[in-house]
Amino acid sequence: MKVVAVIAQKGGSGKTTLSLNLTIAAELDGKSTAIIDIDPQASSAKCGGL
Fold first, then answer.
1. Using H for helix, E for strand and C for coil, what is the string for 1-50?
2. pLDDT for 5-29, tens place per residue?
3. Of the residues 12, 15, 26, 39, which has the fewest C-beta atoms closer than 10 A?
4. What is the pTM of this model?
């Protein structure tokens, strides 16, 4: 299992966008993926259907 963590202290730096795009790319390549969103805004969780 490979783990990729996208971490930055600054808000608005593109962490969610990068994470979702990496997930989509991996899924298109036939990989199984999971996103664990610990941000209180839950932006990744609101983008269902991935």
1. CCCCCCCCCCCCCCHHHHHHHHHHHHHHCCCCCCCCCCCCCCCCCCCCCC
2. 998 888 888 888 999 999 999 999 9
3. 12
4. 0.76
